[in-house]
Design brief:
Low-confidence stretches: none
Oligomer: single chain
Strand content: under 5%
Helix content: 55-70%
Largest sheet: none
Number of domains: 1
Structural class: mainly alpha
Number of strands: 0
Distance between the termini: 63 Å
Length: about 90
């Protein structure tokens, strides 16, 4: 039986584990700046036959969103602290 509860409750396919093993010790930039992401973008642009299309992956947006949220919380906390000291 298949369960689609979430994407991390099952083991990985052997080919995925093999691919991870081949790049396990390689140093890479994170969150979309790595060579694997750049290669995926190139393949997608080729398949779409559009070199001008902008392709963004969700992980980049999640990290950006998290950083934005953290900055907003810090700014709010600073404003609260400034008001409390008066």
């Amino acid at each position: 039986m298949y369960s689609f509860k979430n994407d991390y409750s099952e083991g990985a396919h052997p080919r995925v584990l093999e691919a991870l093993g081949t790049c396990n010790f390689e140093q890479a930039e994170g969150y979309g700046l790595d060579l694997h992401t750049q290669a995926a973008v190139a393949v997608l642009k080729e398949k779409l036959q559009n070199e001008e299309v902008q392709i963004h992956f969700p992980a980049i947006r999640l990290v950006t969103s998290w950083a934005t949220d953290e900055a907003a919380v810090d700014a709010f906390a600073t404003a609260l602290n400034a008001g409390a000291s008066r």
